Amino acid sequence: MPTVIFGSGILGRAIAAGLVARGEPPPIVLGRPPTGRHLAADVAGADLAFEASRADAVVGNIEVALSAGCRRLVVATTGWLDERASVDDLLRSYAASAVVAPSFSLGIALFLRMVEVATGLFGRLDGYDPYVVEWHRREKLDRPSGTALEIARRVLAAHPTKTRLAATAGAPAPDELEVVSIRAGASPGLHLVGFDAPGESVELRLTARDRSPYVTGALAAADWLRRRPRSPGIHAFDEVVDDLLAGRDGASQKRRAVAGVAG
């Protein structure tokens, strides 16, 4: 059965190339529809769909995929989370499952866990003020990025005194977390979390060199959905990462690798 990719931009094309590189048939890649909305016939027969288009198209694309019979989705588009609850309800009504993440980079997934630990440690000490900086290509529309918002959410959850994001103007209040967005050049993504004290600064930084980490994670999420039936609704990428860390899919990955060598 074919795989469908909503979005013919940089990420959509990279996912398509990743599927072909590992021996899967070329997927159906759907660009922006001339009528404003795809038709169910465009994705008929697809067993899995990747969403890598635009925030304002996500809900409509998911509706089209579900109406066409697709029950597995990997959603890599950001900027639509105000619709998260309604999308979760929609998936459940179709008994469908989706892995949703602001970033499918495995490095980011582990980086987020490191941020939680670091925030818990530095938050116990006076004088270490946390902050978040993210830098993406000039054309990226959402700011802060979905990943930066997830980083901020985890800092706020782990810090004893920070309770909200800083306003866009004026000096931040003591309980506010400063989050800075840069949109310049062609950077595929940089995320930095720092803890600044009068005499020193400590920083955690992840810099993407290209989009291959996002493709690797998106394909891992697709494999996770296909491996066995998952409960309906939205699943966090952390569930996929937990299985990878536990080695629960290591044997199947090894078998695929051996089969590829033997072939």
Written description of the protein model:
With 263 residues, the chain is an alpha/beta fold. It folds into two domains: 3-104 and 212-262, NAD(P)-binding Rossmann-like Domain (Rossmann fold, 3-Layer(aba) Sandwich), CATH 3.40.50.720; 106-207, 2-Layer Sandwich (Dihydrodipicolinate Reductase, domain 2). Helix content is 38%, strand content 22%. It contains eight helices and eleven strands. The chain has helices at 10-21, 58-67, 84-93, 106-122, 146-158, 212-227, 237-246, 250-262, and strands at 3-6, 28-30, 48-51, 72-75, 97-100, 129-136, 164-165, 176-183, 190-197, 200-207, 233-236. Strands 2-1-3-4-5-11 form a six-stranded parallel sheet, with helices on both faces. The chain has a five-stranded mixed sheet with strand order 7-8-6-9-10, covered by helices on one side. Helix 1 (10-21) crosses helix 6 and helix 4 (106-122) runs parallel beside helix 5 (146-158). The longest helix is centred in the middle third of the chain and has 17 residues, at 106-122.
Question: Could you give a quick summary of the protein structure above?
Answer:
It contains eight helices and eleven strands.
Q: Could you tell me the number of beta strands? A: 11
- Main sheet, how many strands, which sense, barrel? 6 strands, parallel
Determine the CATH superfamily of the largest domain.
NAD(P)-binding Rossmann-like Domain
How far apart the termini lie comes to 22 Å
Question: The CATH topology of the largest domain is what?
Answer: Rossmann fold
Order of strands across the biggest sheet? 2-1-3-4-5-11
Q: Give the mean pLDDT.
A: 92
Count of DSSP-assigned helices: 8
> In which range does the helix fraction lie?
25-40%
* Count of distinct structural domains: 2
